[in-house]
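Archive transcription. Copying these from loose printouts into the bound notebook so they stop getting lost. Printout 1 of 2:
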Amino acid sequence: MPSVEEVIRAERDKRMLQQRQAVADNMKGVKKRIAVMSGKGGVGKTMVTVNIAALLAEKHKVGLFDADIDCPNVGKFLGMTEKAKISADNRITPAEKHGMKIVSMAFLHESESQATIWRGPIISNAILQLMEKTNWGELDYLFADMPPGTSDAALTMMQLIGIDAAIIVSTPQSAAIADARRAISMCRHMGAPVLGIVENMSGFFGKRVEEIAKEEGIPFLGSIELRKDIAELSDLGLLPVRESAEARAVFEQIVSNFPEEYRVK
Protein backbone atom coordinates (compact mmCIF):
# COMPACT_ATOMS: atom_id res chain seq x y z
CA MET A 1 0.00 0.00 0.00
CA PRO A 2 1.50 3.40 -0.97
CA SER A 3 2.40 5.86 1.76
CA VAL A 4 0.72 9.25 2.16
CA GLU A 5 3.84 10.93 0.78
CA GLU A 6 3.76 8.69 -2.31
CA VAL A 7 0.09 9.44 -2.94
CA ILE A 8 0.68 13.19 -2.63
CA ARG A 9 3.68 12.99 -4.94
CA ALA A 10 1.73 10.96 -7.50
CA GLU A 11 -1.15 13.46 -7.47
CA ARG A 12 1.28 16.36 -7.86
CA ASP A 13 2.99 14.68 -10.80
CA LYS A 14 -0.39 13.94 -12.40
CA ARG A 15 -1.48 17.58 -12.11
CA MET A 16 1.86 18.71 -13.51
CA LEU A 17 1.45 16.48 -16.56
CA GLN A 18 -2.09 17.73 -17.10
CA GLN A 19 -0.97 21.36 -16.86
CA ARG A 20 1.93 20.77 -19.20
CA GLN A 21 -0.35 19.12 -21.77
CA ALA A 22 -2.93 21.93 -21.54
CA VAL A 23 -0.25 24.56 -22.16
CA ALA A 24 1.28 22.51 -24.99
CA ASP A 25 -2.11 22.18 -26.68
CA ASN A 26 -2.71 25.92 -26.43
CA MET A 27 0.76 26.81 -27.72
CA LYS A 28 1.06 24.30 -30.55
CA GLY A 29 1.26 27.17 -33.06
CA VAL A 30 4.38 28.69 -31.46
CA LYS A 31 7.60 27.71 -33.23
CA LYS A 32 10.27 29.12 -30.87
CA ARG A 33 9.88 29.92 -27.17
CA ILE A 34 12.72 32.06 -25.88
CA ALA A 35 13.13 33.23 -22.28
CA VAL A 36 15.19 36.35 -21.64
CA MET A 37 16.83 36.02 -18.24
CA SER A 38 19.21 37.71 -15.85
CA GLY A 39 20.34 36.61 -12.46
CA LYS A 40 20.20 40.20 -11.23
CA GLY A 41 17.63 42.97 -11.52
CA GLY A 42 18.40 46.37 -12.99
CA VAL A 43 20.51 45.16 -15.92
CA GLY A 44 18.10 46.33 -18.64
CA LYS A 45 16.65 42.93 -19.46
CA THR A 46 13.21 44.28 -20.41
CA MET A 47 14.70 46.92 -22.69
CA VAL A 48 16.73 44.25 -24.46
CA THR A 49 13.73 41.93 -24.74
CA VAL A 50 11.29 44.41 -26.27
CA ASN A 51 13.79 45.73 -28.80
CA ILE A 52 14.90 42.28 -30.00
CA ALA A 53 11.25 41.22 -30.24
CA ALA A 54 10.21 44.37 -32.10
CA LEU A 55 13.06 44.01 -34.59
CA LEU A 56 12.10 40.41 -35.35
CA ALA A 57 8.42 41.40 -35.57
CA GLU A 58 9.20 43.35 -38.74
CA LYS A 59 9.60 40.06 -40.62
CA HIS A 60 8.11 37.43 -38.32
CA LYS A 61 5.05 36.72 -36.20
CA VAL A 62 6.12 37.57 -32.65
CA GLY A 63 4.53 37.32 -29.22
CA LEU A 64 5.80 38.92 -26.02
CA PHE A 65 4.91 37.56 -22.59
CA ASP A 66 5.74 39.66 -19.55
CA ALA A 67 6.54 36.90 -17.05
CA ASP A 68 7.79 39.33 -14.40
CA ILE A 69 4.62 39.08 -12.32
CA ASP A 70 5.92 41.31 -9.49
CA CYS A 71 7.25 44.15 -11.65
CA PRO A 72 5.68 43.94 -15.13
CA ASN A 73 7.26 46.70 -17.23
CA VAL A 74 6.92 45.52 -20.83
CA GLY A 75 3.89 47.75 -21.45
CA LYS A 76 5.72 50.77 -20.06
CA PHE A 77 8.69 50.25 -22.38
CA LEU A 78 6.28 50.00 -25.31
CA GLY A 79 4.20 53.03 -24.35
CA MET A 80 1.07 50.89 -24.29
CA THR A 81 -2.42 52.10 -23.45
CA GLU A 82 -4.32 49.13 -24.89
CA LYS A 83 -4.79 46.09 -22.66
CA ALA A 84 -5.45 42.45 -23.35
CA LYS A 85 -9.13 41.48 -23.51
CA ILE A 86 -10.73 38.70 -21.46
CA SER A 87 -13.80 36.92 -22.81
CA ALA A 88 -16.70 35.46 -20.84
CA ASP A 89 -15.06 32.02 -20.96
CA ASN A 90 -11.80 33.47 -19.55
CA ARG A 91 -9.89 33.33 -22.83
CA ILE A 92 -7.36 36.12 -23.30
CA THR A 93 -6.89 38.06 -26.52
CA PRO A 94 -3.44 39.71 -26.41
CA ALA A 95 -2.97 43.42 -26.86
CA GLU A 96 -1.02 44.39 -29.97
CA LYS A 97 1.75 46.94 -30.51
CA HIS A 98 4.47 47.22 -33.14
CA GLY A 99 3.15 44.06 -34.79
CA MET A 100 3.52 41.98 -31.61
CA LYS A 101 0.97 40.10 -29.51
CA ILE A 102 1.53 41.13 -25.89
CA VAL A 103 0.31 39.80 -22.54
CA SER A 104 1.37 41.22 -19.18
CA MET A 105 0.19 41.02 -15.59
CA ALA A 106 0.18 44.83 -15.67
CA PHE A 107 -2.91 44.65 -17.91
CA LEU A 108 -4.83 43.25 -14.93
CA HIS A 109 -3.74 45.99 -12.53
CA GLU A 110 -5.98 48.96 -11.79
CA SER A 111 -3.01 51.33 -11.64
CA GLU A 112 0.71 51.37 -12.44
CA SER A 113 1.59 51.54 -8.74
CA GLN A 114 -0.48 48.50 -7.73
CA ALA A 115 1.69 45.80 -6.18
CA THR A 116 1.34 42.06 -6.79
CA ILE A 117 1.75 40.58 -3.31
CA TRP A 118 1.76 36.85 -3.98
CA ARG A 119 3.73 33.86 -2.78
CA GLY A 120 5.76 31.78 -5.23
CA PRO A 121 3.20 29.01 -5.93
CA ILE A 122 0.53 31.59 -6.81
CA ILE A 123 2.94 33.34 -9.17
CA SER A 124 3.70 30.04 -10.88
CA ASN A 125 0.00 29.28 -11.23
CA ALA A 126 -0.65 32.74 -12.69
CA ILE A 127 2.03 32.20 -15.32
CA LEU A 128 0.54 28.83 -16.23
CA GLN A 129 -2.96 30.23 -16.55
CA LEU A 130 -1.84 33.18 -18.66
CA MET A 131 0.03 30.88 -21.03
CA GLU A 132 -2.81 28.36 -21.19
CA LYS A 133 -5.67 30.84 -21.61
CA THR A 134 -4.08 33.25 -24.10
CA ASN A 135 -5.02 32.99 -27.77
CA TRP A 136 -1.45 33.10 -29.10
CA GLY A 137 -2.32 31.67 -32.49
CA GLU A 138 0.51 31.10 -34.97
CA LEU A 139 3.83 32.63 -33.85
CA ASP A 140 7.37 32.32 -35.14
CA TYR A 141 8.77 33.55 -31.81
CA LEU A 142 7.37 33.96 -28.31
CA PHE A 143 9.69 35.93 -26.04
CA ALA A 144 9.21 35.71 -22.28
CA ASP A 145 10.63 38.60 -20.26
CA MET A 146 11.56 36.77 -17.08
CA PRO A 147 11.87 38.19 -13.56
CA PRO A 148 15.39 38.28 -12.08
CA GLY A 149 16.61 35.17 -10.33
CA THR A 150 16.35 31.43 -10.73
CA SER A 151 13.32 30.43 -8.67
CA ASP A 152 9.57 29.89 -9.16
CA ALA A 153 8.84 31.77 -12.39
CA ALA A 154 11.91 30.43 -14.20
CA LEU A 155 11.21 26.89 -13.01
CA THR A 156 7.62 27.11 -14.23
CA MET A 157 8.72 28.30 -17.67
CA MET A 158 11.28 25.54 -18.02
CA GLN A 159 9.42 22.63 -16.42
CA LEU A 160 5.79 23.17 -17.36
CA ILE A 161 5.76 25.51 -20.32
CA GLY A 162 9.02 24.55 -21.96
CA ILE A 163 11.47 26.89 -23.62
CA ASP A 164 13.62 26.30 -26.65
CA ALA A 165 16.44 28.51 -25.39
CA ALA A 166 17.35 31.34 -23.04
CA ILE A 167 19.06 34.66 -23.72
CA ILE A 168 21.05 35.94 -20.74
CA VAL A 169 21.45 39.68 -20.17
CA SER A 170 24.18 41.10 -17.94
CA THR A 171 25.96 44.35 -17.27
CA PRO A 172 29.77 44.24 -16.88
CA GLN A 173 29.78 44.69 -13.08
CA SER A 174 31.06 41.81 -10.97
CA ALA A 175 27.78 41.25 -9.09
CA ALA A 176 25.74 41.11 -12.32
CA ILE A 177 28.23 38.72 -13.92
CA ALA A 178 28.15 36.42 -10.90
CA ASP A 179 24.36 36.31 -11.05
CA ALA A 180 24.43 35.77 -14.83
CA ARG A 181 26.59 32.70 -14.21
CA ARG A 182 23.90 31.41 -11.86
CA ALA A 183 21.28 31.86 -14.56
CA ILE A 184 23.49 29.97 -17.02
CA SER A 185 24.00 27.23 -14.43
CA MET A 186 20.25 26.92 -13.92
CA CYS A 187 19.64 26.59 -17.66
CA ARG A 188 22.18 23.78 -17.85
CA HIS A 189 20.76 22.04 -14.81
CA MET A 190 17.26 22.19 -16.32
CA GLY A 191 18.41 21.15 -19.79
CA ALA A 192 17.50 24.50 -21.38
CA PRO A 193 20.01 25.62 -24.06
CA VAL A 194 21.52 29.09 -23.73
CA LEU A 195 21.09 30.88 -27.05
CA GLY A 196 23.66 33.48 -26.02
CA ILE A 197 24.48 36.37 -23.72
CA VAL A 198 24.07 40.12 -24.25
CA GLU A 199 26.16 42.76 -22.50
CA ASN A 200 24.12 45.85 -21.64
CA MET A 201 25.45 49.21 -20.40
CA SER A 202 28.93 48.42 -21.66
CA GLY A 203 31.82 50.84 -22.03
CA PHE A 204 33.30 51.28 -18.56
CA PHE A 205 34.56 47.85 -17.51
CA GLY A 206 36.13 46.38 -20.61
CA LYS A 207 34.75 43.31 -22.38
CA ARG A 208 34.04 41.31 -19.26
CA VAL A 209 30.79 39.72 -20.42
CA GLU A 210 32.41 38.60 -23.67
CA GLU A 211 35.15 36.97 -21.63
CA ILE A 212 32.55 35.18 -19.50
CA ALA A 213 30.84 33.91 -22.65
CA LYS A 214 34.10 32.33 -23.77
CA GLU A 215 34.69 30.78 -20.36
CA GLU A 216 31.16 29.36 -20.26
CA GLY A 217 31.27 28.21 -23.87
CA ILE A 218 28.16 30.13 -24.97
CA PRO A 219 27.69 32.59 -27.86
CA PHE A 220 28.36 36.26 -27.19
CA LEU A 221 25.55 38.09 -29.00
CA GLY A 222 26.82 41.63 -28.65
CA SER A 223 27.25 44.75 -26.50
CA ILE A 224 24.91 47.69 -25.96
CA GLU A 225 26.71 50.81 -24.80
CA LEU A 226 25.34 52.97 -22.00
CA ARG A 227 23.75 55.59 -24.26
CA LYS A 228 21.61 58.62 -23.51
CA ASP A 229 19.31 58.13 -26.50
CA ILE A 230 18.46 54.55 -25.52
CA ALA A 231 17.65 55.59 -21.95
CA GLU A 232 15.56 58.60 -22.95
CA LEU A 233 13.60 56.80 -25.66
CA SER A 234 12.88 53.87 -23.34
CA ASP A 235 11.62 56.21 -20.62
CA LEU A 236 9.22 57.73 -23.15
CA GLY A 237 7.85 54.34 -24.15
CA LEU A 238 9.54 54.54 -27.55
CA LEU A 239 11.65 51.80 -29.08
CA PRO A 240 15.31 52.65 -29.70
CA VAL A 241 15.34 50.01 -32.44
CA ARG A 242 12.69 52.03 -34.29
CA GLU A 243 13.73 55.58 -33.36
CA SER A 244 17.56 55.53 -33.46
CA ALA A 245 19.60 54.33 -36.44
CA GLU A 246 22.63 53.71 -34.22
CA ALA A 247 20.65 51.69 -31.68
CA ARG A 248 18.97 49.74 -34.46
CA ALA A 249 22.35 48.73 -35.87
CA VAL A 250 23.34 47.35 -32.45
CA PHE A 251 20.24 45.19 -32.17
CA GLU A 252 20.52 44.04 -35.77
CA GLN A 253 23.99 42.79 -34.94
CA ILE A 254 22.70 40.97 -31.86
CA VAL A 255 19.96 39.23 -33.85
CA SER A 256 22.37 38.37 -36.66
CA ASN A 257 24.48 36.50 -34.07
CA PHE A 258 21.64 34.13 -33.14
CA PRO A 259 22.81 30.54 -33.74
CA GLU A 260 21.30 29.06 -36.87
CA GLU A 261 19.10 26.58 -35.01
CA TYR A 262 17.14 29.44 -33.38
CA ARG A 263 16.33 31.27 -36.59
CA VAL A 264 12.87 30.93 -38.08
CA LYS A 265 12.98 31.11 -41.87
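Printout 2 of 2:
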Amino acid sequence: MRIQTPLARVRYLGSAKEGGDHWWWQRLTAILLVPLTLWFVASIWWIVVSGASHHMFQDWLSGPVAAILMLLFVGALFYHLKLGLQVVIEDYVHYKPLKWTLLIGLNLGCLIGAVAALYSTVAVAFGG
Protein backbone atom coordinates (compact mmCIF):
# COMPACT_ATOMS: atom_id res chain seq x y z
CA MET A 1 0.00 0.00 0.00
CA ARG A 2 1.37 3.41 -0.97
CA ILE A 3 0.51 6.79 0.46
CA GLN A 4 1.38 8.74 -2.70
CA THR A 5 -1.10 9.29 -5.48
CA PRO A 6 -0.27 7.76 -8.87
CA LEU A 7 0.43 11.25 -10.24
CA ALA A 8 2.93 11.98 -7.45
CA ARG A 9 4.69 8.67 -8.12
CA VAL A 10 5.01 9.53 -11.81
CA ARG A 11 6.38 12.99 -11.00
CA TYR A 12 8.77 11.55 -8.36
CA LEU A 13 7.48 13.99 -5.77
CA GLY A 14 8.40 13.08 -2.22
CA SER A 15 6.85 14.49 0.91
CA ALA A 16 9.02 17.61 0.96
CA LYS A 17 8.72 18.34 -2.77
CA GLU A 18 11.93 20.38 -2.66
CA GLY A 19 14.67 17.85 -3.37
CA GLY A 20 14.67 18.72 -7.06
CA ASP A 21 15.88 22.27 -6.45
CA HIS A 22 18.70 21.02 -4.24
CA TRP A 23 19.74 18.49 -6.88
CA TRP A 24 19.71 21.07 -9.69
CA TRP A 25 21.73 23.63 -7.71
CA GLN A 26 24.30 20.99 -6.86
CA ARG A 27 24.65 20.03 -10.53
CA LEU A 28 24.74 23.66 -11.66
CA THR A 29 27.51 24.56 -9.21
CA ALA A 30 29.43 21.42 -10.22
CA ILE A 31 29.26 22.41 -13.89
CA LEU A 32 30.26 25.98 -13.04
CA LEU A 33 33.18 24.78 -10.92
CA VAL A 34 34.78 22.77 -13.75
CA PRO A 35 35.95 25.74 -15.86
CA LEU A 36 36.52 27.94 -12.81
CA THR A 37 38.76 25.31 -11.19
CA LEU A 38 40.72 24.83 -14.41
CA TRP A 39 41.15 28.61 -14.67
CA PHE A 40 42.23 28.87 -11.03
CA VAL A 41 44.76 26.03 -11.23
CA ALA A 42 46.18 27.31 -14.53
CA SER A 43 46.46 30.86 -13.17
CA ILE A 44 48.20 29.80 -9.97
CA TRP A 45 50.50 27.51 -11.96
CA TRP A 46 51.40 30.40 -14.26
CA ILE A 47 52.16 32.66 -11.27
CA VAL A 48 54.32 29.98 -9.64
CA VAL A 49 56.24 29.32 -12.87
CA SER A 50 56.81 33.05 -13.30
CA GLY A 51 58.51 33.33 -9.90
CA ALA A 52 55.62 33.66 -7.45
CA SER A 53 55.69 36.70 -5.23
CA HIS A 54 53.00 38.42 -3.23
CA HIS A 55 53.25 41.49 -5.42
CA MET A 56 52.78 39.39 -8.58
CA PHE A 57 49.75 37.66 -7.08
CA GLN A 58 48.26 40.99 -6.02
CA ASP A 59 48.80 42.44 -9.50
CA TRP A 60 47.09 39.41 -11.04
CA LEU A 61 44.11 39.52 -8.66
CA SER A 62 43.66 43.29 -9.00
CA GLY A 63 42.58 42.82 -12.61
CA PRO A 64 38.81 42.96 -13.07
CA VAL A 65 38.48 39.60 -14.85
CA ALA A 66 40.59 37.72 -12.31
CA ALA A 67 38.77 39.32 -9.36
CA ILE A 68 35.31 38.56 -10.76
CA LEU A 69 36.23 34.97 -11.64
CA MET A 70 37.76 34.48 -8.18
CA LEU A 71 34.59 35.77 -6.51
CA LEU A 72 32.49 33.41 -8.64
CA PHE A 73 34.86 30.53 -7.85
CA VAL A 74 34.71 31.14 -4.09
CA GLY A 75 30.92 31.55 -4.07
CA ALA A 76 30.26 28.45 -6.16
CA LEU A 77 32.81 26.43 -4.19
CA PHE A 78 31.34 27.13 -0.77
CA TYR A 79 27.75 26.72 -1.96
CA HIS A 80 28.60 23.39 -3.61
CA LEU A 81 30.41 22.31 -0.43
CA LYS A 82 27.36 23.18 1.67
CA LEU A 83 24.96 21.34 -0.62
CA GLY A 84 27.09 18.21 -0.80
CA LEU A 85 27.82 17.94 2.91
CA GLN A 86 24.19 18.67 3.74
CA VAL A 87 23.13 15.60 1.76
CA VAL A 88 25.73 13.46 3.53
CA ILE A 89 24.57 14.64 6.96
CA GLU A 90 20.89 14.20 6.13
CA ASP A 91 21.43 10.70 4.73
CA TYR A 92 23.83 9.23 7.28
CA VAL A 93 23.19 10.96 10.62
CA HIS A 94 20.02 9.57 12.18
CA TYR A 95 20.15 11.03 15.69
CA LYS A 96 18.08 14.22 15.32
CA PRO A 97 19.86 16.48 17.84
CA LEU A 98 23.24 15.60 16.30
CA LYS A 99 21.87 16.03 12.77
CA TRP A 100 20.54 19.53 13.52
CA THR A 101 23.74 20.49 15.32
CA LEU A 102 25.84 19.37 12.36
CA LEU A 103 23.58 21.13 9.85
CA ILE A 104 23.73 24.40 11.82
CA GLY A 105 27.51 24.04 12.14
CA LEU A 106 27.80 23.32 8.42
CA ASN A 107 25.75 26.37 7.47
CA LEU A 108 27.67 28.65 9.84
CA GLY A 109 31.04 27.22 8.80
CA CYS A 110 30.33 27.62 5.10
CA LEU A 111 28.97 31.13 5.63
CA ILE A 112 31.99 32.21 7.69
CA GLY A 113 34.41 30.58 5.22
CA ALA A 114 32.73 32.16 2.21
CA VAL A 115 32.58 35.63 3.78
CA ALA A 116 36.25 35.40 4.83
CA ALA A 117 37.34 34.24 1.35
CA LEU A 118 35.23 36.88 -0.42
CA TYR A 119 36.52 39.62 1.89
CA SER A 120 40.12 38.47 1.35
CA THR A 121 39.64 38.46 -2.41
CA VAL A 122 38.20 41.96 -2.42
CA ALA A 123 40.89 43.23 -0.04
CA VAL A 124 43.73 41.86 -2.18
CA ALA A 125 42.05 42.99 -5.40
CA PHE A 126 41.81 46.58 -4.13
CA GLY A 127 45.35 46.58 -2.77
CA GLY A 128 44.59 46.13 0.91
